[in-house]
Amino acid sequence: MGWVDAELVLVSLAAMLSPTTLTFSVLSVVLSEKPLRTAILFYVGAVTATFAIGVLAAVVLGDALADKAPSTPKTWVAVLDVVLAVLLFGVVVWALRRPPNRERTASAVAQMSKVASSPAIAIVGAGAALANPGAFIPIALKTISELDPSLAQYVADWVFFTVLAVLPLLLAIVALIVRRAWAERVLGAARTWLESHVRTVAAAIVVLLALSLLRNGIAGLAG
Predict the structure, then answer these.
(1) 215: buried, middle or exposed (CB in 10 Å: 19+, 13-18, 0-12)?
(2) Three-state secondary-structure class, residue 84
(3) Do 19 and 194 contact (CB within 8 A), yes or no?
(4) What is the H or E stretch that residue 144 is in?
(5) Is 101 exposed, middle or buried (0-12, 13-18, 19+ CB in 10 A)?
(6) What is the Cα–Cα distance from 154 to 145, expressed in whole angstroms?
(7) Following DSSP, what letter does each residue of 54-77 receive, concatenated?
(8) Which DSSP category does 127 fall into?
């Protein structure tokens, strides 16, 4: 596995552990009277929106960022990597220094309480808006383009990113189908755990991603 491949894995994990995505995904299930229905619709919205962005990028962006030697990217891509790394380091420092926002959590609960009892199309729309990988999408698009993919390979890599980014919600759906009572207890406990620990775990993955970007950027500028 090369540096760029590792970067794709890291950005996928960072997207998966995004506190916002995880929180809304868990709340969509634990606050619903029909958790399986809500989870499936929420998942469909998130996957459809994310996948559509990737397919569009595969056609428009393609391998435009690729270099003959992926370990030493194009100069402007290397500069972009360094800038993204600095921004990610800054976000981690800002997020960890900020105390937990109880009002924001209460607002998320209120918002998802309304969504959970909404018509199907509204839940799908909420999944597309709230459970997508968000800020990690541009980094993933850049990373895949650097791999010099064919159209089919770009789509395959994007499917990998999309599935991994929303994997917790997919696992929740499977658990609800197999053992609903147990899954509901676990998800309820996960909600409490997320409020206390998810920022720290996500920060660690984002730092690793930032280091990978910084390494690639420096290699490109020095090459």
Answers:
(1) middle
(2) helix
(3) yes
(4) helix 136-146
(5) exposed
(6) 7
(7) HHHHHHHTTTTT--SSTTS--HHH
(8) H
Helix (H, G, I), strand (E, B) or coil at 177: helix
Distance of alpha carbon 85 from alpha carbon 150, whole angstroms: 27
Dihedral sign for Cα 55, 28, 136, 156, please.
Answer: negative
pTM over 0.90: no
Report the alpha-carbon distance of residue 219 to residue 57 in Å, rounded.
26
Torsion of CA 160, 162, 168, 170, to 10 degrees: -90
Q: Coil, strand, or helix at residue 112?
A: helix
Q: What is the pLDDT along the chain (223 residues), one digit of tens a residue?
A: 466 778 888 888 888 888 777 777 777 777 777 888 888 998 999 899 998 888 888 777 766 666 665 556 677 788 888 999 899 988 888 877 777 656 666 666 677 777 777 888 888 988 888 777 878 888 888 888 888 778 888 888 899 999 998 888 888 888 888 888 887 787 777 766 666 666 777 788 888 888 888 888 887 777 6
- Can you say whether the dihedral through the CA atoms of 195, 108, 22, 209 is positive or negative? negative
Structure tokens belonging to residue 172: 């929740």
Reference 20, options 185, 103, 132; nearest CA is 132
CB 21 within 8 A of CB 166: yes
Q: Are 30 and 209 in contact (CB under 8 A)?
A: no
Read off φ and ψ for residue 176, nearest 5 degrees. Answer: -65, -35
Structure tokens at 67: 């270099």
